[in-house]
Each structure stands twice: as structure tokens, then as C-alpha cells.
Design a protein that fits this description.
This protein is mainly α and 165 residues long. Helix content is 77%, strand content 0%. Helix 1 runs antiparallel to helix 2 and helix 2 packs antiparallel against helix 3.
């Protein structure tokens, strides 16, 4: 087992365990902080796939924006969010069957596609310069239109939030 494999399994373990905590945690703050580790684990997996632009985007957008927004939203809401979710065997049995089917399908897919190919070592090519060049030349107009649409949505959300208070 090489160092690359060990690092992959560490990032995969961090991602899966923290995602498990997100799903099954009863405390929303613990779930949000576990989501932080899930996002970082996914970013680490992107780095291992030589998708450096996606890794940085994952950290900037999801960790820096969405998770912080989620935490502020949770912390600034009214005193206590009290949701009592009752599960019984009526919901648990189909869920376990569905989990078994999905796990079996993913395991079969994993074992049928994972090949130990000893490919020749290639040099690592980063994707950031090529993506930056495309965003500032070929796709400049769609990029600017998307930024204007997001700005209008942000202004509209602020206007609606301010009017309701």
C-alpha cells in the first residue's frame, strides 16, 4: 500500500464518518460542524484527483460561504429549534432495505470498475490556468451574466428579508 492509497483512505474515512454524523446527529450545531469536515474531506479527494480548481472552489464556496451562512442562520434563528422526529419500524425497515440495495449496488460497481492498472507515471498538470483562461476569454459573457444574476438574486433576497421584518 502506497502513501497515496493511505491518504485516500484517510480522506474517504473523514468524509464518510463526518457525513454520517451530519445525518444522524440530533444537535444541529454538531451536524453543521461535521458538515465542515465533510466538505474538507471532499476537497481533499478532489486534490487527490488532480482537480485543484474544484478543491479550492469546494473550500471557498461551500466552507467559506454556504457553511458559514448555515451556521449564522442556525445561530440567529429564534431561541431553540425543536424538531422531534419519531421513527418506527414502518420507516426503519424500508430504509434498511434501501440502504442494503444501494450499498450492494455501489459495492458491485466498485469491484467491477476498480482495476489495478499499472499505468506509466505522468506529470501532474494543474487545471487552474486553463480554466482561468477559458473563463476570461471564451466563456467571459456567460460568466458575467451568471455574476449579474447572482447579484440580482442577492439584492432581491435582501429586499424581501428587510420588508418582512
Amino acid at each position: 500500500m502506497e502513501l497515496f492509497d493511505v491518504v485516500f483512505y484517510v480522506f474517504a474515512f473523514i468524509t464518510v464518518v463526518s457525513a454520517f454524523i451530519v445525518v444522524f446527529s440530533r444537535n444541529i450545531i454538531y451536524a453543521a460542524f461535521s458538515l465542515l469536515f465533510t466538505f474538507f474531506g471532499v476537497a481533499g479527494l478532489y486534490v487527490l484527483l488532480n482537480a485543484d480548481f474544484l478543491a479550492v472552489t469546494q473550500i471557498l464556496i461551500y466552507v467559506g460561504g454556504i457553511l458559514v451562512l448555515l451556521l449564522f442562520g442556525v445561530m440567529l434563528t429564534s431561541n431553540v429549534i425543536n424538531v422531534d422526529i419519531k421513527t418506527g419500524t414502518i420507516q426503519t425497515v424500508p430504509a434498511l432495505v434501501l440502504v442494503a440495495i444501494v450499498a450492494g449496488s455501489l459495492s458491485g460497481l466498485f469491484y467491477s470498475t476498480w482495476k489495478d492498472v499499472s499505468a506509466p507515471e505522468t506529470s501532474v498538470v494543474t487545471t487552474t490556468p486553463a480554466l482561468g483562461k477559458m473563463l476570461m476569454t471564451t466563456y467571459l459573457l456567460p460568466f458575467e451574466i451568471a455574476s449579474v444574476v447572482l447579484l440580482v438574486a442577492l439584492i432581491g433576497a435582501t429586499f424581501i428579508a428587510r420588508r418582512s421584518t
